[in-house]
Amino acid sequence: MLERKTPEWLDEAWENTVRKTVRVSGRIGAGFPHASVGGIYVLEAPHWWTAGFWPGLLWLVYEESSNASLRELAEQCEVKLDPVLHDYTRLDHDLGFMWSLTSIASYKLTQSAASRRRALQAANYLAARFNLQGRYIRAWNPWREGENNAGIAIIDCCMNMPLLYWASKESGDPRYRHIAEAHMETVLEHFIRPDGSVYHIVQFDAFTGECTGKLGGQGYAPESAWSRGTAWALYGLTLAYHHTGERRYIDAAKRVAHYFLAQLPEDSVPYWDFRIPPEVTKYRDSSAGACAASGLLLLADKVGELEAGVYREAGVRMLESLYRNYGAWHDSGEEGLIRHGTSHYPEGKNIDVPLIYGDYFFVEGLARLRGGRTIFWE
Ligand code: GLY
Prior knowledge:
This protein is mainly alpha-helical. It has helices at residues 10-28, 53-65, 68-80, 82-87, 95-110, 113-127, 161-171, 175-191, 227-244, 247-262, 286-302, 305-326, 356-370; strands at 33-37, 40-43, 130-131, 136-137, 152-154, 201-204, 211-215, 341-344, 349-353. The protein has one domain (10-369): Glycosyltransferase.
């Protein structure tokens, strides 16, 4: 049996996480933080794709601390998303990120019937984005008048599929799962390169379904290797295996994991892209590291014991480095937990700052290591 030693830094990391989350919750409240700029989390409108991460983090801390005020804030965030679910006409594929960490989290922890209904409604909207000809979930709506992006699919969407798997299980209707599986087949065919690196964006002809190209998106270039996209694939494929038991998903997850781990620098926290020319600044993206670490811990649970150590040790090493070298535990002028995330380098947005999804996945990784916790994607 693989020895599951509890890392000696884990209790201290969890205590620091709870203490800081309680402190910053006094300022953030039921808001929707994205990036911490100058030490203060900038709050976004509730329709922004990151809206689930703060309430998701609050639920993770609530589950173990039973801190009622954190639960209330998470519930308020969920209610604040209702106008987005009911009245907003530009909901995109990020429905999974948004309602898995709010409504599914609430339903799993409190059995709220209203939360269950919201999550099923979100799943319906997500399923409706499926393009039958191309067998992909459409990513976005037009960003500007006249733009046509009906043929765009992105690697991030792997993490939205758990909403569909959940909806199938919950409703007993396999159609959601069929759609998720069809999308994931497309991911295997068009997004994952033979070496385990991934494309961010794949473009299809929305009418014929033919693949028409690959785009760089948030990576440096179409043929580069955006690290957060690689983490979305690693974790998303592992979750696809968790929900379906289909071998090809875990084989691909392992291939992506091996690529990811082979690219890590000395401190085990990735650069924002694994393939950038020397003149481009190699900022870290701690959020990619946190997401990959949590995914690696799940992957370790899914493989045989002779393999598990490789993934678990890597996940633990990454979380420890994030905790010791990137954590802002004793800086009262910084609201973020984990420094040095990179949101969107090509657009020059939120570079080298704490990001709420980095904080979320770091805390999720700790929750996994503490064992027996509810993980909302599963
Ligand atoms: N597009 C979501 C992300 O920045 O990873």
